[in-house]
Amino acid sequence: MTESLTLPLPERLARVPFLAEALLLAIAAAMFFLLPYSLGFLTRVLILMVLVLSIDLLLGFAGIATLGQAAMYGAGAYAAGLFAIHVWADPLAGLVVGAAAGAALALLSGLVLMRAQGLTLIMLTIAVAQICMEIANKARGVTGGSDGLRGIRMDPVLGLFEFDFIGQTGYWYALAVLAAVFLLLRLVTRSAFGLSLRGIHDSPARMTAIGTPVYGRRVAAYALAGAIAGIAGALTAQVTQLVSPEVFAFTLSAEALIMLVLGGTGRLIGGIIGVAIFMTVHHTAAAHDPFNWLFVIGAMVLGVVFFVPGGLVSLPARLRGLMGRAL
Amino acid sequence: MSEHIMPDHILQLAGVSAGYGPTHVIQNLNLTVAKGERIAVIGRNGAGKTTLLATIMGLTRLHGGRLHLRGQDITALAPHQRAAIGLGLVPQTRDIFPSLTVEENLRCVLRGDATLEEAYALFPRLKERRHNGGTQLSGGEQQMLAIARTLMTRPEVILLDEPLEGLAPVICEQLMQVFENLAADGRHTVVLVEQHAAAALAFASRGILVSAGRIVHDGPAAELKDNPSLIDRHVGVSLVT
Predict the structure, then answer these.
(1) B153 vs chain A: nearest CA distance in angstroms?
(2) Which residues of B touch A196 (CB under 8 A)?
(3) Lower CB density within 10 Å: C or N end of chain B?
(4) Are B12 and B67 in contact (CB under 8 A)?
(5) What phi and psi values does residue B61 have, to the nearest 5 degrees?
């Protein structure tokens, strides 16, 4: 207690549990009132945050590089969409189905993929997403092919809140799911399982030497991240009520990875901040120059890689360090 | 050739040849370890001592032979499966995870009824440093953490690979006392690979000399301790200092 009082204010604030998360939640709530006509865009941002959190579990904690997380996202979207059309239109049940679909695809592909490393692994993750996209394109009778899956009509959330045209229900629903996923990942990453993933990230050989089943843990992490990506996909299907093969697109996986790198890996909150910054730049820069807005993102990524390797979430600590050295 | 598995032996290696890739580092090695035994494995650098421990743990390529733990054939088991049934290795490189704190290094392998308090009771210094990063520790503290972490997996056979290397004499004494306590509690069998032959032989009940991947002498530790010339003759240099 006494020790913490002697620390500088920023460090004292950094030690307050859930302060940053509460602040972000308050900002998200405020955005609802500040941008009431952009709720569709804001909901998309929240869903992307769920997707990026799934990549952070893989890359930031377990050290598993992937450019194919859209495969699980798409599987969740199609599963939730088909479930709503043919079985039950309850949103929460749809989330469970989306999570199960994402986890199942990740588990099946992960049994093979998690034996690979480095560039081979990255290429295989891309291949899985491309195969899924082709299947979605060809299986017109089930998926609607390139026209997409239509006719998704969702029941009210908890039987109370109807999905509305403006997107108010969709926004709060997505925010609640994001908060739940964040808390779940917080628990997981601080558990013995999560710590072993960080150990595997540091050195798989060391973890093997002290008797940890490295392959099994990597597969489990891949399946869990697949479930979370599946939830993100299910949210998209439920909120937009449309699923097209583009949910498997390489650009989605790549952009999600860039968002994570921008914000900072292995911190969870970094992914949230990365998505917010990427999507804000996208929204504003693309409005000014629809063809060259990616230059701004490119410059930001270069800046982060060279000057703030820990991501923008570590910028305050980095600046404090520089100021301390200057003084 | 039929294998003879001794029921009172906790660990048995029969005709084991192993190495890294196609290289054979240890060759046709036979070793039986009784429950509760304290063994010191001594040899020059490159003799195959570390490879012997790594082979017992399943971390090398096995070219021939069989390994048994408590009579169970573990030859085909993966390292984590061997750890789950009672083998624990403290690697020479300590292998502390730099991104984890002391407490997290211990928690990430916690198994069964093992508790952090046990580790802290054994090494009170670790409790004081529990929030420090793994790389913010001194060499001695890192070794304490490596030993405590292995104990969190509840091993019956503890394989210690040069735990005293590069440590101050006072820390070496502390660690040897810990090994003494572990071996004396009746639950642990200790195989100690060590360059500090005098300390290792003072601790052990049995001494094994390894040279060029083979066991060249196997007998009571006192025999080697009292006759340094025996080590000179087999290993070629004096290791008892």
Answers:
(1) 8
(2) 108-109
(3) N
(4) yes
(5) -90, 120
Cβ neighbors of B37 (< 8 A, separation 6 or more) are B10, B189, B190, B205, B206
Nearest-by-CA chain A residue for B101: A195
Q: What is the pLDDT of residues A11-59, one digit of tens each?
A: 677 677 788 889 999 999 999 999 999 999 999 999 999 999 999 999 9
| Residues in chain A, total | 327
Cβ neighbourhood burial of B180 (10 Å; 0-12, 13-18, 19+): middle
CB-CB: which of B79, B84, B108 is closest to A196?
Answer: B108
Best residue of B20, B61, B107, B108 to probe chain A, by most A CBs closer than 10 Å: B108
Query: Residue B165 and residue B146: Cα distance in Å, rounded?
Result: 13
Distance CA B68, CA B35 (A): 13
Q: What is the ipTM of this complex?
A: 0.84
pTM attached to this predicted model: 0.90
Half-sphere exposure of residue A93: CA atoms within 13 angstroms, side-chain side: 15
CA distance A9 to chain B (A): 20
Q: Which residue of B has its CA nearest to A215?
A: B80
**Which tens digit of pLDDT belongs to each residue from A145-168?**
999 999 999 999 999 999 998 999
Residue in this structure with the two tokens 């399943």, named with its chain if needed: B58
Is the separation of the CB atoms in A217 and A196 below 8 Å? yes
d(CA B69, CA B180): 23
Q: How many domains does chain A have?
A: 1
Quick one: DSSP state of residue A57?
I
Q: Which residue has the tokens 């990430």?
A: B108
Tell me how far apart the alpha carbons of residues A296 and A262 are, in angstroms, rounded to a whole number: 12
Under 8 Å CB-to-CB from B197, ≥6 apart: which residues? B40, B42, B224, B231, B239, B240, B241
User: How far is Cα B72 from Cα A179, in angstroms, rounded to an integer?
Assistant: 49
B206-211 and B214-220 strand pairing: antiparallel
Its domain, for residue A159, covers 2-326
Neighbours of B23 (CB within 10 A): 12
Pairwise CA distance, residues A257 & B72, whole Å: 47
| Interchain CB distance below 8 Å, A195 and B57 | no
List of chain B residues whose C-beta atoms are within 8 Å of the C-beta of residue A201: 99
- The whole-number pLDDT of residue A148 equals 94
Calpha distance B29→A24 (Å, rounded): 62
